[in-house]
Amino acid sequence: MGGINNRTLLIAAIMIGLGLIFTVKLFILQVHDPTYKFSAVSNTRRQVTQYPSRGLVYDRNGKLLVSNQAVYDVMVVPRDIVPFDSIDFCESLDLSIEQLRERFVQMRKDIRSRKISTYKPSVFLKQLSAEQYGEFQEKLYKFKGFFVQGRTLRKYEYPSAAHVLGYVGEISEGQLKKDAYYSQGDYVGISGIEQTYEQELRGKKGVKYMLVDVHGREKGAFRGGEHDTAAIAGKNITLSLDIELQQYGELLMQNKIGSIVAVEPSSGEILALVSAPNYDPSLLIGRDRSKNFPVLLTDSLKPLLNRAIQSAYPPGSTFKTINALIGLQEGTLKPYTTHECFMGYFARGLSVGCHLHDSPLNLAQSIQCSCNAYYCYELRNILDNPKYENIQESFNVWKDYLVKLGFGYRLGSDFKNEVRGFVPNADYFDKVYKKSWSSLTVISLSIGQGELLTTPLQMANMGAMIANRGHFLTPHIIKDIEDGEIDDRFTEKHETGIDIQHFAPIVNGMEMAVWGGAGSTARIAQVPGISICGKTGTAQNPHGDDHSIFMAFAPKDNPKIAIAVYVENGGFGARWGAPIASLMVEKYLTDSISTPYRQWIEKRMLEGDLINAEQKLQ
Amino acid sequence: MPNRSYNKSIDWITVGLYSLLVIFGWLNIYAANFNPENPVFFDTSKEYFKQLVWIGFSLLFVGMILITDSKFYVEFAYIFYGFTILLLVVVLLFGKEINGAKSWFEIGPIRFQPAELSKVATNLAVARALSRYGFSFKKFTDLVKASAVVLFPMLLILLQNDTGSALVYFVFIIVFYREGLTGYILTFGLIAGIVTTLTLLIPNSTILGLIALSIIGILYFKGVRKDLFKAVLIGGAILGASYAVYEYTNSTIDLEYVLIPAILFVSIYLLSISISKRIHKFVPTYLLILWSAIILALSADYFFEDVLSHYQRTRINVLLGIEEDPLGAGYNVNQSKIAIGSGGLTGKGYLQGTQTKFNFVPEQSTDFIYCTVGEEWGFMGSTAVVLLFLALLLRLLYLSDKQHSTFSRVYGYGVAAIFFFHFAINIGMTIGLAPVIGIPLPFFSYGGSSLWGFTLLLFVFLKLDTNRNELIR
Asked: Exposed (0-12), middle (13-18) or buried (19+): which is A556, by Cβ within 10 Å?
C-alpha cells in the first residue's frame, strides 16, 4: 500500500485500534466475565429492599416498651406470572378463592392506573405469619412471579401508653412526595413518639440485588453483592416514662374520662401521661389496624384523642395559686393581706359564691380553703392597680405573666399535636364588650373560670413550676437517644419572672390544703410520711357535671414529682382528682399503697365508674 | 446515465455495507419494540414501522443525490452551509425543546433536527474551504478560516443545549490533520485530554506541582543546570513565603493559586536568561507548554463546574469512577452492560432478549440500540457490527485517497471522521468506555433525521466518487 498517505495510515491505525479495543471489551463483557452471564432463557436481577429494624423504645428504668416482630409480605412481579394452581396457592396462604380473585382484580386496576409496574415487584399480600411464610416459601417454585420479602412490625410489650407511643403505618401519598427517602408501602411513624422520633427510629434502608431464575427462586447475590448496601438499624431511644406508674395511672382512670400528667420538676421529664379512655397499642399493628382503627375512630368516647395534650379545660381553683403569685410580684398582694368572705363576693349586682370557711383569711389560708371571694379582691387589685393607665394595659400585664408562666401557647413538648390552650388579651375583651369592660367584667378569671383554657400538660407544668419555686423546663418524654442527643430546648431553664420569695406562702397554703385542719380542701390526699402540697380545682362545665381537678407536687422540699389530674364530670376536685393524684404520688415515691385507709381509697378509685354511671342516668 | 470512460460506477462495496447496516439496524429496532404478547407488524404508531418509512425516504434521497451533478455540491457548498446556519439560528429562536435541547423543528407530525443536516453542510463547506487554491494550514489566516467554518455551527448547536451533537465537530481535527495540520495539534489534543481527565481525578494543586516538576526535570536533562538550580532555589523560597501567608491569613482561596507566584517567577527568570544570554533556545517552547497546561488545568475545572450541566458532570464522574451510582446516573450504562453481557457468545436469539425490552435500558431504540444487538446476537453479532463499521470507515479512507480533486478527498475524510466519532462514542458508551453522550449510532439508531443525515453524508461522497478521476471545480 505504498500509494497510501502516511497520515491516512495513522488515521486508519487509530480506527483499527479502537475496533480492537471494542472487540476486547466485548469479549470480556460477553464471553470472559462471568458476572454478566445470565442463562439464555431468562435470568433476571431482582432488587430487594432491606428494611432496617426500627429502634427499640425503653422506659426510664430500662424496661423494654416497644420492640419488633418479623412478618413477611408476598410480592409479585405481574409480568412474570404464569397460570398456577390457585387452590394450592389459597391453601398455603389461608385465602378464599374469592379473596384471591379480588386481589387480582385490584392488581389489574393498579397496573392500569399506573400505581404499580408490571415488571417491578409490588406487594401482593401483606404480613404473613411465620408459619404461613414457611409453608408458602416451600411451594414458591410453583408460583412464578411471586416471592416473599421480610420486614418488621412493631411489638408492644405492655398494653399501655398508646397515646405516648403512637403508631406506625404505611406512608401517605402526601408524605411520600415530601420526602425522597420513602417509597410506596414504607412504614412511617404516624403519631406519638413514633412520629416525633421517626428520623432516629427508622434507620436506613438497604438494597440487595439478587439473581433469580426462571421460577423466581433466588440464585445468590448479583455480582457478589458489590452493589448491595446493608440496612442500618434505627437508634434505640429511652423515654422518661415510668411504665409502672403509667400502668397504675391507666388503672386508676379506668371507666373515667380525663387524664393524668406527672412530671419530674427538676428536669421537666414526663413520668406518666395518661389519657382515658385509652386503648391497647397492639390493636394498631399491621393488618389489624385497618380493622381496629375505624372502631376506635368512631367510638363516642374518643379513645384516640390524647386528652393530656389535646384537650383544653378551664383550670378552676388550681389557678388561684397563679393569680396569687402575680399579685405578690406586682406588689398588690402581701402574704399578710386578709379579706373577709361571707359565703361569697358581692359587688354591683354581681356575686361569686363561696363555701363555708373561717373569715377573714390571709393568703396561705385562702389557698388552704380555696376562698373565691379572696381572689375576686385579689384580681381586682391587680387589674385596678393605679400604676396602669387603663384596664387594657393592666390586663395585658397580667396576660404577659401567664404567657411567661407557660400558658396560652404550646409548651413545645415532643408531641407534635399538643394544643396551646387559651389566654385572652385585652383586645379580646375589647371586641366582646365593645371596649366597655372593667375588672369586674372578667372577675371569673380570678378563680380560673371564664375565658381561660389550659391543657393537663400545662397544668402539670404549673405544678412543676411551683415545685421549682419559679422556673420550669419544657416538659418532654425523651430521655436518651442512642448515639445522639436530645433537643437543647428540653434542657433550657425557663424563668417565669416571679421572684423566689413569693413562693413560700403559696407552697405553705398548698401544704395546708392537704395537711391543715378544718376547711382544708384536700385532706383526702394525705399520704403518711410524704409532704404532699396540692390544690384542688372544680371546673364548671356548661355541658354537664363539673370537672374534678387536682394539681400537686411532693415532697415539699426537693420535690420529685409534680402532677395534674383531670377527671371529666367528676365533680369536686377532692372527689376524684385529689385521691387519684395522691395515689400516683404515693406509688411513685414509695412503690406501694401503705395503710388500710389508703388501700380503701385506692379500691374506691378503681371501682369508680363515671362512664357507665352517666349512661345509666341517661 | 451515460457512463463515460473516466466515469466510474458507484462504489458497490460501500453501498453493500450501507445496506447491511441499515437492514441490521432496522431488525434491531423491531426487536427493541417487539412485544412477545402482542406481535403486530402493521402498527403505524410503532417505531419500527416509522423507521421503515424513513428508510423509504432515504432511498428516494439517494436517487436524487445520484442524478445530481457532482459540480452542484462544490458550487452550492457555501450556499447550503449558509442555509443550514440560518436553520440553526431559527431553531434556536423558534424550535421545540425535547429532552432539554432546543434543537427540533416540529411541523405537524414531522419532527426534524437541523443539527443532522448541518453535519453535511459543514463537511461540504470544510471541503470547499480546504480545496481552495493555495490553501495551507501553515498560513495562520487559512487555519483561522477553516476553524471558523467548523466552530460556527458547533457554537450554535452548543447554544441549543445539545452538547452531544456539538462535540461531533471536534472530529474535523482528523480531517485537518490529514490535510496538513501539524501533528503537534493532535499530540497537544491528546495531552489536553489527559490533563483534563486528571484535573477531575486529583486536586489541581497536585497537577500543577506535577506539571511544574516534570518541566523542570525535562529542562534539567536538556542541560539547563546552574540557572535552573538558582531559579528553583528562589522559587522554593517564594513558595514557602506564599504558603506562609496562605496559612497565616487563613485564606480561603484554592491551594493551587499558592503555587502560581513561584512558577511565575521561575518562568520569568528562565525566560530572561534564555533571551538575554541567548542560550537554551528551547526554553520558551517548554515554558509555553507549561503555561498552556496550567491554564488548561485551571479552566477544565471551570468548564466542568460551570459549563457542563449537573447530569453531564455526574455521568463523567461515574465513568471516571469518582461516583458509584448503579441506579442513578450509572443506571443506563449498568443496565446496558448487563444487557450486552447477558448475550454471551452467540446471543439469546433474535427477538428473545429480555433485558432490552420493557424499558430496562432507557433510550432503547435510539442511543442504546447497540444493547439489543449485544443481547440477542451475542459476541458474534456485536463484533460483526464493529467489523462492518470498521470496513465502512477503511473503505471510505481508501476511496478518499483515490480522489483526484481535493474537494472530494476532504469531503470523504469528513464523512469517515464523523462516522468514526459516532461509532466510537455510541458503542463506547454502551459498553462503559465513554461517557453517556446522547448521539446516535449511524444507520442503527431509530430516527428519521439522523438516518437521512447520515445517508446524505455518505451518498454525496459516493456521487463525488463516481467522478473521482475528474477535477471537480
From this structure: middle
